[in-house]
Predict the 3D structure of the following.
Amino acid sequence: MSVKLFSREEVSTKNDAKNTWLIIDNSVYDVTSFLNEHPGGEEVLLEQAGRDGTESFEDVGHSSDARELMKQYKIGELVEEDRKQQPSKENRSWDSEDGSGSSFRSWLIPVTLGIIATIIYRFFLGK
């Protein structure tokens, strides 16, 4: 069985509630029938409709169950010339240093500063 191929231009025309397609990791998904079932609400999917939602999908950190569920909505893949280079799995980790997605360091410094400020406040002004 051959895989159906789509161009980014073709996918971009499927961008409303009646026909909702999106791209994740160079695969094309028709999520029209999933809009009402999506735990995050249909707005989340419609926001990415007709576009590449890979970054948003990965930023949320979907479960393995969600990744398994999405297989039933796959309708094809992008044509070779429209594909984006996929980062390796180790680049998608929560502590990546390339600045994409959320990283451990992005919240560690503010939390540490908050704790220090609380200790100083309680020491000098607390009774």
Notes: The beta strands are 5-6, 15-16, 19-24, 27-30, 74-78. The chain has a mean pLDDT of 83. The CA atoms of residues 28 and 126 lie 58 Å apart. The two ends are 74 Å apart (CA to CA).
